[in-house]
Alkylphosphonate utilization protein
Amino acid sequence: MTALPNCPQCNSEYTYEDRDLFVCPECAHEWMENEVEENDDESTIKDAHGQVLEDGDTVNVIKDLKIKGSSSVVKQGTKVKGIRLIHDAVDGHNIDCKIDGIGAMKLKSEFVKKA
């Protein structure tokens, strides 16, 4: 049995073949085997739903996030405006932002969705 490729949109490993197409059951993306996305390089940062993020975008937090070293929490649904992307993030926190009422902090792109 050959290994099937991960979904190019959401990177899900649960893809399956349907005739000559690959299908992702998580995001419903379909693509052909010989179809290669040219703009999908390692330097792009994507949100939790696979949308490409850019500097200055507005995002929403998709789950409550505890703030390290504090009893505060960033609540689900919090809107964050004017993000800055960090492409060489070592610890996985690849979004630099300022949240109203909390201040400057870094977020992981897997916990936000593009607004």
